[in-house]
Amino acid sequence: MDNRRGYLDLLEEILSNIPSTAQSIANSFVAEHRRLESCPIVTIASYDEAALIRSQAKPQMDSRSIKEVLEQANGIFSNRIFNNHPRFFGFIPSPTHPLTLLGDLLLASKNPHAGSWFQSSGPSAIETGLIRWLAELAGLPADTAGGLFVSGGSMANLVGLQTARDQMLGEEWEQRARGTIYVSQQTHSSISKGLRILGFSNKQVRKIKCDENFQMDCSDLERTIEQDKEAGLMPFLIVASCGTTNTSSIDPISNIHTIAKAQVPPLWVHVDGAFGASVLLSKSHAHLLKDLKHADSMSWDAHKWLFQTYGCGMALLRDRRHLLQSFATGAEYTRDAVDSGDFESPNFWNFGPELTRPARGMRLWFSLQVLGLDAVGEMIDHGFLLAETVEGELRKLDGWKIVSNAKMGIVCFRYEGTGKSVEEWDELNAKVSGICIRENKSAALTTKLDGRTVIRICAIHPEMSVEGMKEVVRSLDEVARELAAI
Amino acid sequence: MDNRRGYLDLLEEILSNIPSTAQSIANSFVAEHRRLESCPIVTIASYDEAALIRSQAKPQMDSRSIKEVLEQANGIFSNRIFNNHPRFFGFIPSPTHPLTLLGDLLLASKNPHAGSWFQSSGPSAIETGLIRWLAELAGLPADTAGGLFVSGGSMANLVGLQTARDQMLGEEWEQRARGTIYVSQQTHSSISKGLRILGFSNKQVRKIKCDENFQMDCSDLERTIEQDKEAGLMPFLIVASCGTTNTSSIDPISNIHTIAKAQVPPLWVHVDGAFGASVLLSKSHAHLLKDLKHADSMSWDAHKWLFQTYGCGMALLRDRRHLLQSFATGAEYTRDAVDSGDFESPNFWNFGPELTRPARGMRLWFSLQVLGLDAVGEMIDHGFLLAETVEGELRKLDGWKIVSNAKMGIVCFRYEGTGKSVEEWDELNAKVSGICIRENKSAALTTKLDGRTVIRICAIHPEMSVEGMKEVVRSLDEVARELAAI
């Protein structure tokens, strides 16, 4: 009984500290956000620091004060990339809107089990409505489309790829062994990972060539499908990208769709829109995505260009019944039981890989409701402007080559003068990136395009100014010229 | 430029509101927690209410005040089961410790990309240390064990099952088509879902009989493996449960391990410890889990009996290299590159299905640090006491049959008198559960055991009192007697 008393005392102490601590965390967060420009962009723990942090992982027997643990946590978290820094341009940055702090807190405070309608009817109704609206934006048929919120693009792609496998190849290994899948040289690695999870080997995946705009080459696609059919294989799935990670290129989805549906039987078209699909909400550029309507399935991340914290993506299906056919389990739940009622009051555990799942969609809902579509649209359009600013500024300068034009927030370029080998210029560009990171001027990482090292900027931060982008270009140019002169 | 000004004004207004709103959400949360006993346990939106909520999913063009959206959100969230209600006993309840509100808020405020070391070295060092400590608790070999935090048991099981597939059957469809998997009649549905994702058909899964204690029958297991081998199939994986959802039974893992490893080649043993593995942290019952040390892979949920909010589970592997062999992608990352250094500074995107992932482990770390192991151990032990209290009270009463003894927080029972058919008693027990839910006395759902409807109580709430549990039993008994008398 003493122990019980002790536990309840501890609980009471914690409860009484929660509101002020929440405010204090929020205060620090807002203060940090206001001085984000001067924060370090990239901090990596040294070997020794990492060893020290690892040693702090194990809990002690006794309780500790919240304040003390918070301070320790702040030290640990400082060893990270500030993904929401206006001058972080690597991978796909995560310029979360500060508002997400409240949406996340709200969800944590309610913590519904959003796997079943019984447990989470309110949040599930919002998620249902939100998914339908997003599917409608993409141009998918309102009467059949559906989907669910998942932890991100990898899971959303997995859901799409699995429904494709199950609808097109059935359950037999013999069929599946003959299936072939068409991706491009620029397709995201989560697709090959997803296919591997689903049982496909690399030998079944065809990497279709890209043209000079890093878009899938449809002639190569058609030719390769034809060859595979002649070899007795079963082409069943084309994965198109809407916003590749390297260059933000959009594959020719309409042509791909035509090719896919001209086959007998028609091929499935999955669109990886993890990054690009958010442009559907832009005010000036949504037309770029008019061909998304051809997707049989698609992925879309809210934790990229919809400004959410990590762990929020969407899988959308042209025909929501396919989700049930791939993911519904339980003896009491048979395929025959699928009727329209299930989609009005869905058990999301029958729609995807997870049984227990947080109501991730409520976080996106909260942000969209407060910000409104006008603001969100402008925030997205601003990314176009930032990348175009980089391209425009670079074109005014000698020595810079635009390797991939500004497209949907991403631009790739390379400094290349005379008197050095291409390999030496590769090295120089990598050094330019590294020096600017070390000096905290910007974190524009490098990637490889057509075998050459290029500097890549993904600039989608709504708070980054055009003047700030010009300054970033100036500093890259300065460093490049200094190095080139050596 | 006007629009830009408008956006920045909106941002400023939101920023200035964040700390007070965070405090206000936390205040409501604490107030609700203090009166949790009197809150409705189960609230389900009616058809009309759900339609209304769905219609509120779509955002408007204009921004709205945070306060207004919060109020609307509270209304929506009220349509849920309070999984953290002390008298919610269905599924596995989620008696989150209130402290998790702060851990979740903290993580949201930092939002590291915990897929790679480069982006998240501090949090990744903690996750690495925490995973190792948890694996050590389970008895897995410290020099080889590893794992990662995932969104929950379904994903953790998927990770374990995939490593089993890849290690035991290789990449060829012919081999995989011959693979057979052994689960029990009480195995959780996430296992069959996971196997389906991985490409296995139901025909490859053997449901081994359970004995009267709902544990896998090892004679049936051995016999079935033998039959499959004689039929030219390739038994490769046994899934044992540590805490089945229905009865919290633990399969005879040691015997299963002996059988598995006596085969040529030896079979893989995956343990589903999503619910039960947390007992490793109990002060008085950890010995029940001494056989976890035999697992080749295991799942473990922190959002069940470690009191975290949803979206936090662990996949643990006896040999962490197997994770890389199943999940590492990228041309630059080959299998040959696997050396010990990678495990000191891991890229978790090479350990599991997700590329982008939140640093889920930091939430568990925060709770464990503040509470300390003494408190957590007592919180877990308390669940044993609560279920035992139910069993003890029921045994004093006429008409109640204990169908499954109190085991690790779960007890199943049934009211059955004379003068009715078993089917009628089935119906009566379901009604007892339903009436107690409607009257907000308790939410003890029903399940099927040996074909009969039983009432099931999973009682793991650290704040539920023994006296409260006795009252729950009294009210169930009262309702049952009234119905039986009709």
UniProtKB/TrEMBL annotation, chains A, B:
Modification N6-(pyridoxal phosphate)lysine, positions = K304
Enumerate the InterPro entries for this protein: Aromatic_deC, PyrdxlP-dep_de-COase, PyrdxlP-dep_Trfase, PyrdxlP-dep_Trfase_major
Q: What is the top-level taxon of the source organism?
A: Eukaryota
Q: Which biological process annotations from GO are given for this protein?
A: amino acid metabolic process; carboxylic acid metabolic process
Looking at the UniProt entry, the stretches that span the membrane are none
Instruction: Look up keyword Cell inner membrane and say if it applies.
Output: no
Alphabetical keyword list: Decarboxylase, Lyase, Pyridoxal phosphate, Transferase
Entry keyword annotation includes NAD: no
Q: Name one GO molecular function term.
A: carboxy-lyase activity
Which cofactors, by name?
A: pyridoxal 5'-phosphate
**What name is this protein filed under?**
PLP-dependent transferase
State the organism's lineage.
Eukaryota, Fungi, Dikarya, Ascomycota, Pezizomycotina
